[in-house]
Amino acid sequence: MSSRTGRRAERDAGKAPVPADRGRAAARRSPGTASRAPGDGTASADRRPTAAEPPGGARAWAVWGTAVVVYFMAMFHRNGMSAAALMAQERFDAGATLLSMLPVLQLVVYVAFQIPGGVLADRLGPRGSLLIGLGAMVGGSALFAVAPTIQVAIAGRVLIGFGDALVFLNVIRLGALWFPRREYAVVSALTGLVGGLGQVASVAPLSALLRGVGWTPTFLAASGVTALLVVLVLLLVRDRPAGFPAPGRAERISVRASIGEALRERGPRVGMAHHAVAMTPFTMLAVLWGYPLLERGAGLDPGTAGMLFTAAALAPMVLVPFLARLTGARPGLRKPLALTLAWTVSLGWLAVVAWPGGLPPLWATATVIVVSAAGAVIAPSVSFDYARDGMPAQRTGVAAALVNMSGFGTVVLATTAAGALLDAQGGPTGGPAFQVAFVPLVAMALTAAAVLTVLLRRYPRRTADGG
């Protein structure tokens, strides 16, 4: 089969999936055809027929489990500024706009490295990429711990952002390389759930540590725990199951061509729109403004604010594995789930900012935060599943990177705009100030929800067997 024919077949397979039993029968009828590495979609010199998909099983869960612990720690580092925001403001004598630069520059680096990170995931492999990311986070957290000035602290957060950029894509990549497609939604959702637990650990527990042992010991300890994960990745993580050939002979195209290829397919564009609306509000709260919103906006004491934010993040997590397994078994549910999440989250925040006389009652604000947390932890199982539709399997890294860029680019804009608007009003002085500050977030969420609705009109259904 020529390379051009092979590429056309891969694209067609993404748009009109072939049932797994028919694919296996074709493989048996054509033993002389170059085999394709399951999960990679790459040509191999090995002409022995291989299984159509990775087998999954205990070894796959061990590999993914190690990688997802790395993601947990990356989320802890990424979102630690929410609990540390007010202490950082005092430590570095910084206003709201300058303070927002700590997480925002970290996220800018994170977003900027999504495409290079996606290319690295496709070419170097998940294991090597995770090791590079861990090394950067170890150094960044240590630098942040001992930073004497805001400028040095920002440098530490930039290093963390670079390391963080290499983690999630490779955890998702390992899920695609080690598990069959029918289990991918569950693995993606569990990845989001573990990330949500990392967010939780960065609020109340981190706040308690900061108050108990202080700034430097807390963040040095986080650096040390991250260093231990380097050893675990070296020992346990492998790029693909034994017997599945490496993608050494896969055709490589330019980064520009990879981006164009992904943007021409509707699946990645749907994933981008969904990620922008479903994960942005809670992520913005987690990286910086959630804790101040509850403490300064709703008037709660620090301990209660931390516990409430933690409970709001934990509450929806029990539903995530169930919903993911349901969508994995019944792919037709992706569309209603995506639209329901998008409009519920965006309209919920519209109600918060439009509530007359200040923030809504605490129960209503907490409900919107819980719904947003549900959107953030469910978003990966939907957004990244859509991102694979129509894409050659060996180039899903770039499509996933675009989806992640869309979500976190929106987070950067919303977080920065909130800081600027708070400063313009004299700081985070109360509920009305936060209502004004969150108007840009609501505008972006409503826009993304509308784009998602248009893109999902007449979207082809995916079968449980196929891509």
TrEMBL record:
* Region called Disordered, residue ranges: 1-57
Q: Report the transmembrane regions from the record.
A: 57-76, 96-116, 128-147, 153-172, 184-206, 218-237, 272-291, 303-324, 336-356, 362-386, 398-422, 434-456
**Keywords for this entry?**
Membrane, Transmembrane, Transmembrane helix, Transport
User: Membrane topology for this entry?
Assistant: Multi-pass membrane protein
Q: Which compartments is it annotated to reside in?
A: Cell membrane
| One cellular component (GO) term of this entry | plasma membrane
Q: Which InterPro entries match?
A: MFS (IPR011701), MFS_dom (IPR020846), MFS_trans_sf (IPR036259)
Report domain Major facilitator superfamily (MFS) profile positions.
63-460
Citing just one GO molecular function, the answer is: transmembrane transporter activity
Its recorded name reads MFS transporter
Q: What organism does the UniProt record list as the source?
A: Marinitenerispora sediminis
